[in-house]
Amino acid sequence: MLAEPSRMRVLAAVALGANTESAIVAASGLSTKDAMVALRRLQDHGVITADAEGLLVAYEQIRKLSQETGTAPRPQSDGHEPEAVLHPFVQGKRLIRVPAQPSRRRVVLEHVVANSFEPGVDYDERTVNDRLREWCEGGEVDHVAIRRYLIDMGILSRGNGIYRVKTSPPPEPGAAERFVKALGLG
Known about the structure:
This protein is mainly alpha-helical. It contains nine helices and seven strands, in the order αααββααββαβααββα. The protein has a three-stranded antiparallel β-sheet. A two-stranded antiparallel ribbon has the order 1-2. A two-stranded antiparallel ribbon has the order 3-4. A hairpin with a 2-residue loop joins strand 6 and strand 7. The radius of gyration is 27 Å and the shape is elongated. The model is unreliable at 71-80 (pLDDT under 50).
């Protein structure tokens, strides 16, 4: 019900204080017809109600409807899920080509590393080359270029001829975690 953009705009307008039909039209930026159709639909579901002071959001009804669905809404796909990114570039354990877009390139290269190397293990250059060469057989990609990308993108580290999978540092604590820790509770 709330996936329709016009309904969301009407709901937002009422939540922000538009309590008459004309105020909703002005606040939502919708045509009168579109705003009224959306308003009627929201009223039919009890999400927007009216009292002596005008229209208002029935937040408890929204909670109830949300619980009845049993699941949270799924976010829209932006095409950057690993499977969607990998498909045109990786087939089985073969790297066909490297994406030009850096964010997609990172996903593909992290997949190669996750399926070729263990975190915390030291690898010599020959081993790294052999494992990357397996990925590059039959594709348009050179294992040396892939190794360079992995170093440049910070996915692998290199020092004294030894390569390691870089582990990401733990995330910085948010304001809530810092507050709890400052109180001595965490």
